[in-house]
């Protein structure tokens, strides 16, 4: 379901999708991957939950990744003319839109890895 709000984290769940990505770097301390989406050719960061083995994901390899996309509940940094993109949660947006928006507002969009299969 799109647009689920989590009070505990202040993030709104938006969509789930699968993308082909290339891992460019990983930070085991903060459990994040720096990746490039192979469709849009844009870079973004992915949070990796503790239940996923971060060591199994290799830099320089390509994966079909299952991603959960969240937007921040508080969007004060977004200009008023773009706020609707983040505020209207009952509209299903494509993951391409979120990847493009992440490039402009990285602190307001979060991608979380559910699983990854090397291709």
Give Rg in angstroms.
Answer: 14 Å
Q: Low-confidence segments, ≥5 residues, pLDDT <50? A: none
- Global mean pLDDT: 84
Strand order of the largest sheet: 2-3-4-6-5
Total number of helices: 2
Q: Report the order of strands and helices.
A: EEEEEHHE
Q: Oligomeric state of the chains? A: single chain
Q: How much helical structure, as a percent, in the residues?
A: 10-25%
Strand content: 35-45%
What structural class is derived from the secondary structure elements?
mainly beta
How many discrete structural domains?
1
Describe the largest sheet: 5 strands, mixed, barrel
Q: What would the principal axes of the Cα set say about the shape?
A: globular
Q: First CA to last CA: what distance? A: 28 Å
Kindly state the number of beta strands. 6
């Amino acid at each position: 379901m799109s647009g689920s709000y989590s009070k505990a984290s202040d993030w709104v769940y938006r969509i789930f999708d699968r993308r082909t990505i290339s891992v460019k770097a990983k930070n085991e301390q903060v459990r994040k991957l720096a990746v490039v989406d192979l469709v849009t050719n844009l870079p973004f960061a992915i949070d990796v939950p503790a239940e996923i083995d971060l060591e199994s994901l290799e830099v320089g390899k390509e994966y079909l990744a299952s991603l959960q996309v969240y937007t921040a509940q508080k969007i004060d940094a977004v200009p008023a003319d773009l706020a609707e993109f983040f505020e209207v949660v009952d509209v299903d947006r494509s993951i391409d839109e979120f990847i493009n928006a992440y490039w402009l507002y990285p602190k307001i969009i979060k991608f979380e890895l559910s699983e990854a299969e090397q291709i």
